[in-house]
Amino acid sequence: MCGICGVVAMDDVLDPGVRGAIGRMTATLQHRGPDGQGVFSDPVAALGHRRLAIIDREGGAQPISNEDGSYWIVFNGEIYNHRALRARLIARGHVFRTTSDTEAIVHAYEEYGADCVPMLEGMFAFAVYDVRNREVFIARDRLGKKPLFYAQLGGALHFASEIKALRASPAWNPAVDLTELEGYLSLGYFLAPGTIYRHVRTLPPAHWLRLRGGRVEVRRYWDVERFDDHPGAGAALEREIEETLQTCVVDRLESEVPLGAFLSGGIDSGLVVSMMAEALGPGVTTTTVGFGEAAHNEIAAAGLTASRFATRHHTEIIQPALTSVLDAIVDGFDQPFADASAVPTYHVAAMARRHVTVALSGDGGDEAFGGYSFRYVPHALESMARSFVPGAPGRFAAAWLGERWPRSPQMPKALRLGTLLENIARDPAAAYYADLCMVKPHQARRLLGLAPLRDPSASSVYEAVTAPYRRCASASATQRAQYADLNVYLPNDVLVKVDRMTMQHGLEVRCPLLDHRVVELAFRIPAHRKMPRLRPKHLLRQIASRRLPAELARLPKRGFSAPIGEWIAGPCAEQFEADVFLASGAVRSLIDAAHVRKLFDDHRTGRADHAQLLWTVWMLARWGSMASVAPALRAAAVA
After folding, report:
1. 228 in a domain, yes or no?
2. Based on the domain organization, do 333 and 400 belong to the same domain?
3. What is the pLDDT of residues 55-65, one digit of tens each?
4. Among all residues, which ones are annotated catalytic?
């Protein structure tokens, strides 16, 4: 795992100041690659690389070129089929100088051009500079495990693993995008290709970008294409899933540095650890963190799996001294990010890095195999209920009842009857959007002092969230929700969190459940087999019942959450007030501070639970307090 960046002239040659900044840009990514730095430059382009040495530690330095120096590459990630790809390229006359996976990519691009990208199995973000044609080609992996941002600044295309590298360019001209900010306040994260900055874009997963002749072209190269057509069932289907996952776990065990796993109390990471132990034997290094509150502590459950497979297990209770790490967490994202599970992820990564350099995780099982019961079960029930609602009058009655039904903050949002009734009255895609929003859209607009939209579906955020749901119209309701999660929630929330929090500590994370072979297989399995009688993640639980301690297969999903409500009302209340209400800065001019004060007072006194909404505002304010973003906020406030 590494950090990459670069600048390429859009037309003629690079401004000398921009080209000369490549060293500073690269240095901002040192946390991603503590093992070395390399740069390449010519009059047209400059490439930078920070290295975390995992494979070919002696010969894998970057940037690296093909035999004659006509193609140069910087690469972040791991390619698990690089040996087979290398053999194929050698047979076609290519000459290799190293055994690194990076060199396999640059030769593959030389041979096949853009068609090489679907050949790659792994996680990646890379840029290849074609010296003769003065072009750059950039690609990102299928599901978005590795990040890539780009911007057209000062007559040059800039790109980097993190926004902070772009900020180091003398061409940086920041301005906050208020439309994207509204989306953040609803979702808690930014949707690719958008970012907090008007001119900075995220290259979406499964896309490549080419700069040719001064024009930027972006194309998608992969998607899930088959739904609900797998004929298998029962033990044969479970065996196929298990064997596919086992292959993907073994593929991810290649490493020249210490390797281990994150272990929660759930079945996904437990299955990964069981397969690692099967391949490597006892003594796999595992790590678990938890909080003092029982509802946020999986240490005991994780210990059952650790004991079963005789792992070298390390645990840690996270203390509520949040402010001591908050700046590091906020800085890691470079823009506001409101998924509070970033806090335990930061801590488990810090602990794991003391023992290993590479960790496997169980991320991806929920989206592929129907694990989010709080979303998929209600969505299925709503879909069934709509068939019994008699047309427009029935939908109107359901909406009227839903708006007036008493709310119970103790129940998950998606399981409240009022929410269920409101969603029955909605279009299925609109119901998915409503469930995905951590803060209701009208509440998000209220935070900015804006009136609610008369038609919420007119917003660009609504369109971006619901587009993948509508794209697979022939699939079942739960498959559509899972596919939308795969395209929206997973790459923009889960994988952003995992990458940034682990790379803050120079830790590489590999996700076998997010191998495209596992994902494609999972979406071919009909929803009624993945969730029979609406039992979430049934097939993985069946496999787990044979591999893991019996108690784990029966445990409900708990999630990797943090007690933010208790923090904001208790030990972090003063810091919240200082950051949101007292600190100087343009963030206060963007939000309705009086409204936020009322929400905070109601939350602190127990009159209401506004934990997620307040956390979302706090992360925005904390981000805004960073000196490096002040000019962008001032520009937004003036606009």
Report:
1. no
2. no
3. 777 777 999 99
4. 2
